[in-house]
Amino acid sequence: MRDLIKRYWRTINRPSAYFSLGFLTLGGFIAGVVFWGAFNTAMELTNTEAFCISCHEMRDNTYAELKSTIHFSNRSGVHAKCSDCHVPHNWTDKIARKMQASKEVWAKVFGVVNTREKFEAKRLDLAEHEWARFKANDSLECRNCHSFDYMDFSRQSPRAQEAHQRYLGTGEKTCIDCHKGIAHQLPDMKQAQMDELARQAKVQK
């Protein structure tokens, strides 16, 4: 194995007998541009709604639920697709999220949520992972479209005005703390509540 590596190293270190340095440099630059363009095109393809709902697990569950909400259809015609809420917009965070999403490919291959029953059984776990991600980044995906600075409080209900000014204005809470069921059905929260009570009981001991 070591001899093979040495042989390859000598090959790539050896000066070219046929092409000039300028030609190789230009060729490398063009190859880099082509690779980068293809990579970004593929990345953006995976952000399309058509790609997200190409498997029935998403199409028949979360997407079907989204279609009944104001994020899907509304008076202003603003339509939020899956990636608007579940993929960060800035490049480095987007790459990290795509790497995390490789687990979803694993779930698809091995049929982790390939039936409605399996999906419902995993719904709370899936939701808690997303809620934790939103909490950690201060609901960044929400704030890409909804800005506290431009909210017209006069057009909100008194309850919404009070909550937004108290929590968002002070940074005490973030969007996902109050809007967990905004685009998809909430999971059965009884088990989560029991787990939280058990956790608090341990802390108090």
The geometry reads as elongated
Strand content: under 5%
Largest sheet: none
Distance between the termini: 59 Å
- SSE-based structural type: mainly alpha
> Are there runs of 5+ residues with pLDDT below 50, and where?
none
Average the pLDDT over all residues and give the rounded result.
87
One letter per element, helices H and strands E, the order comes to HHHHHHHHHHHH
Bin the helical content: 55-70%
Keywords:
mainly alpha; 205 residues
Question: Brief description of this entry?
Answer:
The protein has twelve helices and no strands.
Description:
This protein has two domains: 30 residues; 135 residues, no CATH class. The chain has twelve helices and no strands. It is elongated. The termini are far apart. The mean pLDDT is 87.
Secondary structure topology:
Elements: H1 2-13, H2 21-45, H3 49-52, H4 56-66, H5 82-86, H6 91-100, H7 102-109, H8 116-136, H9 140-143, H10 158-168, H11 175-178, H12 190-204
